[in-house]
Design goal:
Shape: elongated
Strand content: 5-15%
Distance between the termini: 22 Å
CATH architecture of the largest domain: 3-Layer(aba) Sandwich
Number of helices: 10
CATH superfamily of the largest domain: HAD superfamily/HAD-like
CATH class of the largest domain: Alpha Beta
Number of domains: 2
Structural class: alpha/beta
Order of helices and strands: EHHHHHEHEHHEHEEH
Number of strands: 6
Bound molecules: magnesium ion
Length: 243
């Protein structure tokens, strides 16, 4: 019996990559509008390089962008970047197509639901609460709060324990073959790879760990139902043989 379904957050339930890219582009445009003496392509490329080096949760992207471009520090330009970045994030944050329907259907059918996500707890909760996704979930597991990241087995084991589900009674859904699918499969969970966004053709060396792959999130519901049906059909057989 499948008892619990676990979801990754970024680019599985929430459109993170598209939003971040739009926010960064708008930030650079607004910085230029307010005096950054560099063309868009140069500044954008430099910003992307900087994010790659320092990580997306680094707090001083726009200050460092000026340093890298040899532009003297100007609080007005930095503020222009910060404002455009946040305005874009607030205005365009949205869930992945079909996400709410999948969660609602699974919830109605009695499955326990949880999120297992990597990242900064405040930023992850901000996305969950702004989109009012919290009402669907029995629990939320965020790596930077728990002290262990996907794909380490410990984060999945902690989540399973707290949800009171065995690995074989659980399904993990995520867009990353490495952190979501490989991680969950190693502890014995069923896995559904959501082949979506920038990881749709990456980390393919881990593809054998995916039990299923979907390109549309809504298909998850039918797969979970199917896993339950399969088990229901298998059980009487086992009893007949035992007799
Ligand atoms: Mg993800």
């Amino acid at each position: 019996m499948i008892k619990a379904v676990f979801f990754d957050l970024d680019d599985t339930l929430v459109e993170t990559t598209k939003l971040a890219d739009m926010a960064r582009r708008n930030a650079v445009e607004n910085m230029i509008r307010h005096g950054l003496p560099v063309d868009f392509e140069t500044a954008y490329k430099e910003l992307m390089e900087l994010i790659k080096e320092y990580g997306s949760n680094f707090g001083k992207h726009f200050d460092y962008l000026l340093r890298r471009l040899d532009v003297p520090y100007d609080p007005k330009i930095v503020t222009a970047g910060v404002i455009a970045y946040h305005n874009t994030k607030f205005a365009y944050l949205k869930s992945v197509k079909g996400a709410r329907k999948v969660l609602l259907d699974l919830k109605k059918e009695g499955y326990k639901l949880a999120i297992i996500t990597d990242g900064d707890p405040l930023k992850q909760w901000e996305k969950i609460l702004r989109l009012e996704l919290d009402e669907f979930f029995d629990d939320v597991f965020i790596s930077d709060y728990l002290g262990v990241r996907k794909p380490h087995p410990k984060i999945f084991e902690k989540a399973l324990r707290r949800m009171g589900a065995r690995p074989e009674e659980s399904v993990m859904v995520g867009d990353r073959l490495y952190s979501d699918i490989y991680g969950a499969k190693r502890v014995g969970m069923h896995t559904i790879w959501f082949r979506y966004g920038k990881y749709a053709n990456r980390e393919l060396e881990y593809i054998d760990y995916a039990d299923f792959q979907v390109r549309v999130l809504e298909d998850v519901v039918e797969i979970v139902r199917g896993l339950n049906r399969e088990e229901a059909e298998e059980r009487p057989d086992t009893e007949v043989h035992a007799d």
